[in-house]
Model the fold of this input.
Amino acid sequence: MGALTMMASCSSDPDAGGPPPDAGPIDDSAAPDASALPDDSGAVDAGPPLSDAATSDAGPRPVVCASASCATSLVTTLGGPALATMFGAEGYCALLHDGTVACWGQNENGQLGRGPAAGSDGSAMPARVEGLSNVVAIDHTCAVDKDGAMWCWGRGPFPGGDPFSGLANASTPVKLPIPPATRAALYAGSAKGPELSLGEFGVACGVVDDGVLCWGRNDSAQIAPLESLYTNSSLDPQLVPMPPGAKIRSVHLGMASFVLREDGTLLSWGFNPTIGRVSSLFPDPQPKPVALTGVTNVDTLEAVACAVAEGSVYCWRDVNSLEESFHDHALPERVPTPEPVVQVSTTGRPHARGCVVGVSGDVYCWGKNKSGVLGDGTTNDAVTPVKVVGLPGPASEVRTTDTSTCALLTTGKVHCWGDDRSGQLGGGTKKPTLVPREVLLP
Done:
């Protein structure tokens, strides 16, 4: 599940079953008039090459704190099992400028980090995660502090957790017994088809001096060779063998795993075809390059992955799935965008879609528009990116879930839109909206 984001002080890094119940009226008072969008659900033409404005080293605009309530990085919480997200079990966490982390939304697995007294009720009011300080990097509900210690809370594969799944719930951060890390990555939930759950799984990794250290379930060969598959147990932390190459910048986990190197090389292994390259192994345990150059940003969740390479965004997915998607390509396919992009976020099944931040700071989204998550003031699906309306300034990052979207602005403010039944919009109420609304950061 997700992309990793790194922060330094007050600046952001380039990386880092059935219908749900009625959520009440949607606030669309500020929504603009919009004509119906094309109903073509097939693959879109990549279009002509980007202009010379696209650069391989472009990154998101830095965050410059405009007030005491200031976020420098934004992630999703993952929530619990993936099926739960179909019913609004969603949330977000923000790394604040003072090195603490604030979360809001669903809390069924302790992902808000507020301790046992908070119970499992969600919260529409952001509050700080207990016991975290001096944090420099976050990915979902894992964080790395300035000393390299990795902390995780909520649902995850904790070393020493359940011997079958490795999964456990922690309502406050747990310091993991691994060497100092610079980056963290987490993916935990339930594999699922259109109608049923297919079992729980979870994997987590840390970028350490020796490479990438991973632990948890190995169902898709994300941790160890093929002979370790289907052992019905959780694997202890172990290094994933990597081919020689440039320094590892970040790791990104879904049903397939990805490593981004400092030279823009992207390696993948695990679930095939989500690895985004041709392989005769299903799954493929060997990290090998994806045919993209100049990669600066990656995001993956479940069987969908996207990457920004030289100013363009490419997406791919498990095309063997029975679920409809706007990313129907097993290999990277360029998505046409109105301008070069610097950051991408995607969702998993069943509501696969994507959002990007352009070099201008504008945000564009495409795909399924359940609950108005595309941010254009409508609920019309879009096969090509549409501009998010109503943001009060340029964005640094955008994050997506099944039924909501949030953007981190360059001022350090966060604005969200879409469904709000779990309080995932962070506005202190549970009122959905078709247009961006400010999150009440602590």
In short: The chain has one domain: 5-438. The CA atoms of residues 377 and 434 lie 5 Å apart.
